């Protein structure tokens, strides 16, 4: 129904191509300090409200589940005295690409929007 695509830097090209081919279902998202904080906060709320759940990484045979788990564990937020908006980053020698992809997908289920079902990585969860 909707594709949220990173249109920051090198993501602008693929975002433009997707928009050209698929039209209005594609929404480009520019990663800024504000947008990234908002996306990660939304993801956190979805987890807290049990509207999003992940498979158990200790029993899953999917290497992507393990990768996502460890990337989520490396996410950091840092506040400075000049801003109320945290800087979202990851630990040195780690990545956040899978986390950011999950944040983009979770925008469809943004907290506060009505009519969205709960979601798991493996599909819709009828609750």
What does this structure look like?
The chain is of the alpha/beta class. It is 39% helix and 19% strand. It contains 4 helices and 7 strands, in the order βαβαβαββαββ. It has helices spanning 12-22, 33-48, 63-74, 97-106, and strands spanning 3-6, 26-29, 52-53, 75-78, 87-90, 118-120, 123-125. The strands form 3 sheets. A 3-stranded mixed beta sheet has the order 3-6-7. α2 crosses α4. The longest helix is centred in the first third of the chain and has 16 residues, at 33-48. It is globular and about 40 Å long. It starts with a strand and ends with a strand. Residues 119-127 have low confidence and may be disordered.
Return the average pLDDT rounded to an integer.
Answer: 87
Strand content: 15-25%
Helix content: 25-40%
> What is the CA-based Rg, rounded?
15 Å
Order of secondary-structure elements:
EHEHEHEEHEE
The shape, in one word, is: globular
How would a textbook summarize the main sheet? 3 strands, mixed
* Topology, number of strands: 7
Strand arrangement, major sheet: 3-6-7
Euclidean distance between termini CA atoms: 21 Å
Going by helix content, strand content and strand pairing, the class is alpha/beta
List low-pLDDT spans: 119-127
Helix segment tally: 4
